[in-house]
Amino acid sequence: MSVAPSIVLGMTTLLRPAAALSADDARRIALRAQGLLGAPDRRSGVRGVLRHLGAVQLDTISVLARSHELVPYARLGAVGRGSVESAYWKPDGPDGRPRAFEYWSHAACLLPVEEWPHFAFRRRAYRARPHWNHQLPDGVYDQVVKQLRTEGPLTATELGGAKKTSDWWDWSGTKVAVERALMYGEVVCVERRGWKRVYDLAERAIPDDLLHDDLDDTECVRRLVRLAGEALGVGTRADIADYHRLRGEQVDAVIADSGLVPVEVAGWGRPAWADPAALTAPPRGRHRTTLLSPFDSLVWERARTERIFGFTHRLEAYVPKPKRVHGYFVMPVLSGGRLVGRVDPAREGRTLVARQVGVENAKAVPAVARALTEAATWVDCSDVRVERVDSPELREPLIRELAALLD
User: Fold this and answer.
1) Can you tell me the distance from the alpha carbon of 162 to that of 156, in angstroms, rounded to the nearest whole number?
2) Angle at Cα 201 formed by Cα 195 and Cα 204, nearest 5°?
3) Which sign does the torsion angle of CA 204, 122, 33, 258 carry?
4) Strand 2-3, strand 196-201: pairing
5) Is pTM, for the whole model, over 0.85?
6) What is the DSSP string of 103-162?
7) What is the DSSP pairing of strand 272-274 with strand 234-236?
8) Is the pLDDT of residue 5 over 90?
9) pLDDT tens, 85-104?
10) What is the spatial distance between Cα 385 and Cα 277, in angstroms, rounded to a whole number?
11) Sheet of strand 351-359: strand arrangement
12) Pairing state between β 261-265 and 19-21
């Protein structure tokens, strides 16, 4: 990394890049920022992962495990799945309140509770938006809030029913009301029970010292831009905006005083910014070898993933089966700081089934085998079966590696 100073002309400062980074520098900085390079922070555990990343995406799909379980697994190794849920949702401390809340960030995400004030701008924006296609009968919103105040945390079903029919989009008035209250910030999801949201009043779930919405939009966005830069290590304007789904002009308005510094990355061909702490020492340490959730924040933004890793990542779960190229729930394989393959997994009893495997080259076969066996152990599978390998000549070498590791 080479550092370039700014030039001061009278009262005007022309910002030059604080550092010139190679593409490999940027890749390693990104991996360290995402907790995938260096010794894992086991003492702070799952909560530490959440604080470090700033957001962990939720999704309904569960193959090996749900995505919010796979994210800490990728960074900490075989952490107990029960302890993952407890770390996110279980109240502790003298106030007995959760340490995370669910809200709209990159998508539906778990967020550290201390960031509640910084999403005030989004809550205000939802309140100002025209109401969605779902119609809300008169009085239902106030009734839902009153019921939660009286009865405590409840699911939509317990509030009176989530749907009018079996169609997933056909919400009941109760469901529309409680989801609107969630977006407005009057209600919080305090846990998932059988994957159903459990709602409670924000005034009960959020600590008193955080339950204010007095930060203006600029302060909120500046904080989220800084958090995104820290979680990415280094990123373009589009990378930073995508992390918490901000608009590009919102990023432009605050990035100069966000605390991030401009950098130049070889081959990127566009301006970038970095967390200054990421530039203080070269990234070193052990690389994780692991399967990644397709919703992992390392690979959230497809253009960034291609730019940094030369790897095309696409979730195909919502693509019609005949049009899928790599499979239903394609999990990238990370090893040696690079994305070296992909696996479409499934489970049959205590067998982890690799329905489709893509391997970069023969050198990557041992890494893919290690990632599969570690994942199998974590989800209590005693065997791994390989069905299809995109490069047929690598099928037998992969099976041999798996046999040796499982022996």
Assistant:
1) 5
2) 110
3) negative
4) unpaired
5) yes
6) EESSSEEEEEGGGGGGGHHHHHHHHHSPP-SS---TTHHHHHHHHHHHH-SEEHHHHT-S
7) antiparallel
8) no
9) 889 988 775 677 788 999 99
10) 44
11) 290-291, 331-335, 338-348, 351-359, 383-386
12) parallel
